[in-house]
Amino acid sequence: MNRTIMITGATAGLGKATAVRFAKNGYNIIITGRRKERLDELEKELLSYGEIKVLSLNFDVRKREDVASITGNLPEEWKAIDILVNNAGLAAGLDHIDAGNIDDWERMIDTNIKGLLYVTRAIAPLMVASGKGHIINIASVAGKDAYENGNVYCATKSAVDSLSRSMRIDLLKNNIKVTNIAPGMVETEFSLVRFNGDNERARNVYKGIDALTADDIADAIYYCATLPAHVCINDLVITPTQQANAGISYRR
Ligand code: NDP
Ligand code: 8X3
User: Fold this and answer.
1) Domains in the chain, start-ordered, CATH in brackets?
2) Chain-centre distance of CA 242, in angstroms?
3) 212 in ligand 2 pocket by Cβ < 6 Å?
């Protein structure tokens, strides 16, 4: 029987690349996101890779009731989730703490921390009931070191890092692996979202850097998820070769 993976935020970037990687390797996939038309397109694409099943769930991770009703009432045949990738997330804005937009702060906190918690609260009990599972949280180098103007985004990713450690302790006796993945710069729609659609500003983030691709992170997720049952990667920091940490990179 195929194994099942659920990926939040699969309509773009790392989440989409991860869905493709696992579909090509025969996994049944649950994809989620707010953009329904992208979910529909991706569902078709994933089904073209082989004899797999795909379930699209269209919801906003910030909406507690929606997360509870949709992920808490999965069809019976989708309840055996082997891997949950908590990926949905974003940065909004890049401002000094005294000038930040409070709406941006709330959006990041609600998505990156509270959304991840809502989804985990719905799916972890299914894994506990089945006596196994693997939760992979997408944190960031921004959660390892703060950088100028990163303030609230860095804090949300530090929270993810901390939650990964807590989850690992709480779920240890339930045979559930917890892996924290902390990428550096990955060229996706991330900066376009951060700068509210400003293409030039987004492109400049990666200027002179051979940035990571979404596929690089999908490969790492696949590696972590396919190790023998007794092996768990707890924490993985992945940067472009030209990036030392969240704040220091070398541009050519
Ligand atoms: P993208 O903007 O390309 O993709 C983000 C995904 O998250 C989309 O599928 C989006 O779907 C989903 N998402 C965002 N907000 C919500 C929401 N409220 N409800 C449901 N889904 C949501 O960015 P990335 O792929 O780069 O980012 C993925 C994760 O990786 C994020 O957690 C990010 O913080 C993290 N990360 C990214 C890095 C980078 O440099 N790119 C580096 C380190 C970490 P939709 O809009 O359809 O809802
Ligand atoms: C995204 C990486 O360094 O742009 O999490 O904050 S960074």
Assistant:
1) 4-238 (3.40.50.720)
2) 23
3) no
